[in-house]
Amino acid sequence: MREQLEKIKNDAVKEIKVGTDSKGLDEIRIKYLGKKGLLTGILRGMGGLSTEERPVIGKLANDVREEIEAALEASVNKIKSGEKNKRLLEEVIDITMPGVSSKIGGLHPETKVLDEIKEIFFGMGFSVAEGPEVELDYYNFEALNIPENHPAKDEQDTFYINDKVVLRTQTSPVQIRTMEKTKPPIRIIVPGRVYRSDAVDATHSPVFTQIEGLVVDKGITMANLKGTLDTFAQRFFGEKTRTKFRPHHFPFTEPSAEVDVSCFVCGGEGCRVCKGSGWIEILGAGMVHPDVLRRGGIDPEIYSGFAFGMGLERIVMIKYGIDDMRLLFENDVRFLKQF
Ligand code: PHE
To answer: Which of 214, 233, 246, 242 is nearest to 319 (CA)?
Structure first.
């Protein structure tokens, strides 16, 4: 039995020495120390020993177990630290590699153009006013000389919240709201979202942006309107730009005009951008109707004014040569990156 124990110990220690991974060592542990292991087998056979021999062999067997366990433990530790080092090496991070930089956003072309337009009007003494997008029928239509059953009400296909409340179809209601609470001189621009129940196509959207202008003071004439719009057109489209007023009708201005600018691409010769005409329509304008002044609480005998309104998307499209308005709303980064 002594020899058997001796042999088990030597065999086990030898095997442990050549074991290369924790799994292999586990197998060795089971082979020798497990319930059905070799050492356990020997201990079972101890019943047949004499009373003198039993404690001696018992102690020897325990020593063998301890030695095997110690050898296993030492080996496991060695292998574990080896495995850990290997893993650390595999997971090593090269901090000198170039990083993945996150992309920085930019301003939307509409924001850029609006900023530019604001800057031009600030230079002429205008300030910005705002009004609600959910608007009373009164401000959007009635106060602007567009009574019930007026065809202009159909022209601007309106989203109704209820009988008296609409989504504003234009920024013109802010004319009345401003006159109600401000004494002349008034010199404002009103950028803002407006809504019309139009189907989406290359030049229409149910939501778009207008920039309204309103000036009210003593002695304001059509010449001031023309001068203001000329200055705007020259600063925005280029020094040589001219404007052309074509007679038009708006219920809230009298007289009214549609205003064209000479084509900033061909200078008026006729090209693809101006569709051969040499002119590009950019806005509607006119002298504020006396009834509109009156409804704003301003005496038309003392004061007069002009107003204009332009579509921001249209201006952006003209400026950048964009042929489909949907591109401005889809927010495809590949498109937006170009500005
Ligand atoms: N509100 C008009 C429109 O939406 C534009 C306009 C504004 C015309 C101010 C004249 C004066 O068509």
So the answer is: 233
Distance (Å) from CA 274 to ligand 1 centroid: 22
Give the pLDDT confidence score for residue 210 in this predicted structure: 98
The low-confidence residues of the chain, meaning pLDDT below 70, are: 152, 155-156
- Tell me, in angstroms, the distance from the centre of ligand 1 to residue 256's CA: 9
CA of 175 to the centre of ligand 1 (A): 11
285 lines ligand 1 (CB under 6 A): yes
CATH architecture of 109-336: 2-Layer Sandwich (3.30)
Domain ranges for the chain: 2-90, 109-336
Looking at residue 120, its amino acid is I
| DSSP-derived pairing of the beta strands 253-262 and 279-288 | antiparallel
- pTM for the structure as a whole: 0.72
Looking at residue 48, its pLDDT comes to: 80
